[in-house]
Design goal:
With 707 residues, the protein is α/β, with parallel strands linked by helices.
Amino acid sequence: MPTTARRDAKSVERLLRPRSIAIVGASATPGALGASVLANLDRLGYSGEVHLINPNRSEIAGRPCLKSTDELPFGVDAAVLAIPKAGVISAIAGLARRGVGAAVVFSAGFAEGGEAGRAEQREIARMATEHGMLIEGPNCLGFVNYVDGVALTFVESQPAPLRGRPGIAIVSQSGAMACVLGTMLASRDLGVSYSVSTGNEAVAGVEDFLGPLIDDSSTVVAGMIVEQFRRPQEFLALARHARESGKRIVLLHPGRSSAARQSAATHTGALAGDYALMRAKVEGEGVVFVESLEELGDTLEICARAPHAIHSLGRGTVVVTESGAFKALTLDLSEQVGLSLPTLDDQNAPALRAVMPDFVPVSNPLDLTAQGLVDPDIYRRTLEALAKDERLGAVVLGIIQTDAATVDRKLPAVIAGLRHFGSTKLVVFAGLDEGAPVSAQYLHDLRALGVPYFPSPDRAMRAIARLAAGAVHAPVAAPAPLTGEFPRVCGVIPEYQAKRLLAPLGFPFPKGRFVHTWDEARRAAESLGYPVALKAQSADLPHKSDAGGVVVGLADTVQLKSGWDRLHSQVARNRPELSLDGVLVECMGRPGVELIIGGRNDPDWGPVVLAGFGGIQAELLHDFCLILPGERPDAVRRALLGLKAGALFGGFRGTPELDLPALVDLIGRIGQLLVSHPAIRELDLNPVIAHPIGHGVLALDALILAN
């Protein structure tokens, strides 16, 4: 995998705000990459020095051309390589000799093109690192700095100054997707401060550009499209910095499916990591995660138009509509996307009741019926009442528009009501009928009031749900150190040794004894009390059941002897080369609900705990969640109850309520252990049996893998 080295902010500044630029491969041919870059600089009014390099031309459009990079003045800030792949390495060497600060490499065919391309990309990285040069790309589309009017890209770029609008920074490994997102935002009259595509990231990655853009005063939110984070811990630190600075990062990360992960590897030379782990970690630092380009654009729009209201989205949302049928659709969608719609009724919302006609019951969603046609002032009165309700953080106006006459009847009243809304709540106007004739003036008036206009309430609700999930998720603090001794271990630590290490730290296990002979096993069983289980023990036998190394339910001495002989014969037959350390004799536990609990210290992302339902649930339904060490108990509880079979914790069809507090405590201990001892690569407790409330949980097995 290509590696990136940390670049300081001054190097990025020199690229994004260059005082001098060289175009290697300058051309007078319309459509040629070098010609397109020069045309962009002219259109955006770039006023710095521009040096054109073309060995076959003495001038282009009246500008002199240099024959090679060796003729450049020393210390040019940035260069664009608008040349075929074959000339890239020698061009970078020439730029390095002339002290050029940064280079944008458009050419493809490097790390994404096989081993030969990967070797060439490594050479680019080596030269750049040796000479302190920042490289954007290869296989990228360059960047546009709309704040200062700099466009080092071959994609046609038009001036788009912010003119006081909040700026959205785009940082994308995919140049094409950066362009698509930029077009989407521009169509909504949203301002883009910077758009950067990083491509293969031979030297500079998304992390290098994100930091300076977060600190840029013109940027209020960053939209990212990333297929692979190459420096995860640095990105997490930047996400933390953004959150502390009051700025949001909204992330679209392809790679949930195995096919998408394979595509990412061939597209940008990236090797995809664990998608679920990545998502848990970045959301834990306040990153807003979206799952489509549409969601990305919608969420960015809310952040840019109403940054003052984002903090309130941890409260509930009210949907105001004009259709009884749409009320039911809204309730379905809110459950699907996890959007909280607090109950509103005649008793608990008196201010709303006071402004509604008698025939309109107070509810959420609130159906105004067709009353807005005969009494347009109802929109103002409704908004005024909702502004005072502290249970609400967002209002979605799902208004029927239909035709020009209806729009002209309703929209002025809605806009007048919004002008006097005077609230920190988010308001989104979401027409029920996409394609209705809403004039540009109405759109302008809504947006000027900080109210996004969406063509459907579904999109508004999905975007609000994404932001609300981040608003209710408190930053995860580092867990307190786990008290108790835990020696440094290495390699595979089998069950009997793992339990000896973990039991003093409060991990719950059945009573048991480690034995070597039949007589020891008999005495252990008599001391522990029947029934018992026998488990073969060896560091080379992490999955005992696969070799017949587990015999359970032995009720007396006769069964114990039969089980002892059967266990040894099965292991000898299935693993004849194996020499057992001994056998673990354990009390049989009470029946309960089977769970799988474990954790790992990922080399890239750090520690995480996995919890889910075991047995067929784990194998077939993948019913698990990832929990970050230090997560608050209430957040852990919510995650467990959110599992597909989470209703089992509360008792289901006559089954008793399970001891969820004991499970939350065990998960917390695992997190503390992983943080305190990063040499532990994996910890597996499988199965863990959850018993009724007050009776705790019991880990029947334990395995540790350590570096």
